[in-house]
Design goal:
The chain has 14 helices and 17 strands. The protein has 478 residues and is of the alpha+beta class. The chain has 2 domains: 102 residues, Beta Barrel (OB fold (Dihydrolipoamide Acetyltransferase, E2P)), CATH 2.40.50.140; 308 residues, Bira Bifunctional Protein, Domain 2 (BirA Bifunctional Protein, domain 2). A hairpin with a 7-residue loop joins β5 and β6. α4 crosses α6, α4 packs across α7 and α6 runs antiparallel to α8. The structure holds 4-amino-1,4-dioxobutan-2-aminium adenosine-5'-monophosphate and magnesium ion. 4-amino-1,4-dioxobutan-2-aminium adenosine-5'-monophosphate (4AD) binds next to β12, β16, β17 and α14.
């Protein structure tokens, strides 16, 4: 008896006429005869043909959508449309029933909103199983890329005592009971009596700790969860998301841009190769979805064309200053179509501006660099002009910012000066300053939001649909 998953069986012409056993879930059952069986190994179902004359009525009644079954039978060539192999079932056992009147995932189209409310079951649908298989392969590709290049995987802390990164609002971690936090003499919460003896939060980024590894091991990367308590209810923001943060000693901003571009191309090429069926399905899904949109909002390229486009073309590198010139003179700016008009140098770019540059102006991924110091983090290296820093953001079609990074300020005095100006306590970041005191060196890194990458790769429009259980304002179900 041959036991293989459906993905393997569908690729094994050589097993024709062999006896096989299969376990999986019923997707549909029609004419009291044909089960479309799926076991999660592939987007494709295998057709299993029941000999209904010799099968108990009581069993036939239990073959419902969602039920788990074990089957034995002979693998044969199929005459059915669009399928090459099927199983002629000789024995069927119902492992777990599924009540057809109650099971939420009916064989019909469900809205993504409905499926979010049933996130524990949505991965049983074609779309979500495809997205989650692609997500899994992408994670593996991330590790493979860095491991092949001698980067060290570092697990930076999730509970952090430093909140100086300034990347976003933080979630506090405490063991104080509500209303029972001890107070100091001046009426503030006395964190010295809390679990860690100080105020602690969930991390917004592993960067600062990753820098300590880069300054010892040369090349390091993190890939872990990060948390931001921003009240942003958008299709691109989560309160809990996964971030990949490489950090490299002796690498400047140009090297950082090269690394980001090469890395993104690698992981996308990897899934183009490894997830052919899932991407073909997601490509069709997106094409269908596009048809329901007004002409102007439809995409010119299919999902697969977009992925190949990214892999095959150079990202356009443009300074912030050039970008501001382009935006200032752009049609939407002149016609006051931007929600945030661009009037002068120094303005922070909003997603509408980023998307204009990528989707309308350059029509390719863009790396913007050398941003005004005032709108970027304290640790970015100051340029000789005294007003811009060696920052870079990678901007993607449909997504906007997918990567944020920089060359780090490696000069002790300049960094201290900057921290003073921003009122960042030197005592709190003494260890970070030590990296500039002992054996400092040029170094750079970036952070890539993993869900934004999965969004781009799968063509899903809402970031909540590319993470198993999304955490967003007012929502931490499951
Ligand atoms: O630009 P950000 O805030 O950069 C940092 O945190 C740096 N410490 C990274 C570094 O240099 N090591 O965030 C990096 C990326 C963004 O470009 C975006 O892709 C993603 O993280 N990101 C989010 N993704 C989902 N939901 C959110 N709320 C996100 N905020 C940032
Ligand atoms: Mg950023």
């Amino acid at each position: 008896m041959i036991q293989k998953n459906i993905a393997e069986l569908l690729n094994s012409e050589g097993l024709i006429l062999q006896e096989v056993t299969l376990k999986g879930w019923v997707r549909t059952f029609r004419s009291n005869r044909f089960i479309a069986l799926n076991d999660g190994s592939t987007i494709h179902n295998i057709q299993c043909v029941i000999d209904f004359e010799n099968t108990d009525e009581s069993i036939l009644k239990r073959i419902n959508t969602g039920a788990s079954v074990s089957l034995q039978g002979t693998l044969t060539e199929s005459n059915g449309k669009g399928q090459s192999l099927e199983v002629q079932v000789s024995k069927i056992e119902i492992l777990g029933d599924s009540n057809p009147d109650e099971y939420p995932i009916q064989p019909k189209k469900h809205s993504f909103e409905f499926l979010r409310e049933n996130a524990h079951l949505r991965v049983r649908t074609n779309t979500f199983s495809a997205v989650m298989r692609v997500r899994s392969k992408l994670s593996f590709a991330v590790h493979q890329y860095f491991q092949e290049r001698d980067f060290n995987y570092v697990n930076t802390p999730i509970v952090t005592g430093s909140d100086a990164e300034g990347a976003g609002e933080m979630f506090r971690v405490t063991t104080f009971k509500e209303n029972k936090a001890p107070l100091t003499e001046d009426g503030k919460i006395d964190f010295s009596k809390d679990f860690f003896g100080k105020e602690t939060n969930l991390t917004v980024s592993g960067q600062l700790e990753a820098e300590t590894f880069a300054m010892a091991l040369g090349k390091a990367y993190t890939f872990g969860p990060t948390f931001r308590a921003e009240n942003s209810n958008t299709t691109r923001h989560l309160a809990e998301f996964w971030m990949i943060e490489p950090e490299v000693a002796f690498m400047d901003l140009d090297g950082n841009m090269d690394l980001a571009e090469d890395f993104i191309k690698y992981v996308i090429s990897y899934v183009i190769e490894k997830c052919e069926d899932d991407l073909a399905f997601l490509d069709q899904r997106l094409t269908q979805e596009d048809k329901s949109k007004p002409q102007a909002e439809r995409s010119e390229l299919s999902l697969l064309e977009k992925l190949r486009f990214v892999v095959d073309n150079n990202f356009k590198r443009v300074s912030y200053t050039e970008a501001i010139d382009i935006l200032r003179n752009s049609k939407p700016n002149k016609k006051k179509k931007f929600k945030y008009p661009i009037n002068e140098w120094g303005a922070d770019l909003q997603s509408e501006h980023e998307r204009f540059l990528v989707e309308k102006h350059f029509k390719c991924p863009v790396i913007l660099f050398d941003y005004p110091a005032d709108i970027k983090a304290f640790y970015m290296r100051l340029n000789d002009d005294g007003k811009t820093v060696r920052a870079m953001d990678v901007l993607f079609p449909g997504i906007g910012e997918i990567v944020g990074g920089s060359q780090r300020e490696e000069r002790y005095d300049v960094l201290v000066e900057k921290m003073k100006a921003l009122d960042i306590d030197e005592k709190e970041l003494w260890w970070y300053l030590d990296l500039r005191k002992y054996g400092t060196a040029v170094h750079s890194g970036f952070g890539l939001g993993f869900e934004r990458l999965v969004q781009f790769t799968t063509g899903m429009s809402n970031i909540r649909d590319v993470i198993p259980f999304p955490r967003t304002p007012q929502n931490a179900d499951f």
